[in-house]
Amino acid sequence: MPHEPQDIKTELDAVSIIYDGLDAEQGAMDMVSLARSLDGYARILATASTFAVSFVYQKHFDAMPVRVTVETPEHGSFKLAAIVKWVGESKLFDEPKELFKRVLEWLMARLSGKTKEQTESMERIVMALIEQSGRDKNEMFALMNKMVDGLQNAAKNAVAPVGETCSTARVTVNGP
What we know:
Elements: E1 10-20, H1 31-54, E2 66-70, E3 79-86, H2 96-111, H3 116-132, H4 137-150, H5 152-158, E4 168-173
Antiparallel strand pairs: 1-3, 1-4, 2-3
Helix pairs in contact: 1-2, 1-5, 2-3
């Protein structure tokens, strides 16, 4: 791992990855499907958090200044808490938590095939937060759309267990 725990500068809210139904109902998951899914979610979370903190779309996972870790699942379910930790030296946006939540919500909606009309209200919230940062909204929106295109494979991987070892997979952002 390129970063030691003491290098962590900011911890964003925990994100719950929840698998329901089928094997997951019994607290078990097919390991290959789970690994593929976690890889997909890790890429989506890392991309969204990197953007929320620095307004950069980093395509290469290994070059992202974040680590996405998981905590122990709760008994009787298969729920993992993914913790996104910013390990970069400079932070360009002081309050990335709300932007992270909103960008992740928008990304997940777009990656799940929702139309522009269905994501319009989410988009307005993201753009308002970006405007507070002083960034160009049009430039940032174009960058966000590139993120959607670049994360298509990660989104497919994220839902790989659905139908095989669980009936649904979802992400929720914990915190206030």
